[in-house]
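note to self — DONT lose this again. spent like an hour looking for the file last time. sequence + predicted structure for the chain T wanted, 105 res
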Amino acid sequence: MAESPAGSTSIKELAAEALETVRYRIDRLASFETLRAWNEETTRQNDLAHSLGYTVIETWIADLDARTCARCAAMSGETVIRPEAFTEPPPLHGHCRCFLSTQIT
């Protein structure tokens, strides 16, 4: 196999970079879809509990650190009482780490 000229990127380096991009996108999609499914099921269960006469309080939980976006930080700790619901429930974006916590009484 011929070596690449000085200063140019080899096919091996290009393939490694492409593979890293694919891994990043797969991780982002898996994280997003897992949280989306979790929060959709939480919402479904909360709807059921409310329909049975329970008081359902949902609280938005964000993992507050240097990676938290402004939208998620602003929503952290916000609560709604059923039948009210969040207009745009988490996750809000790829790599979002927000979820809904529920209190049923």
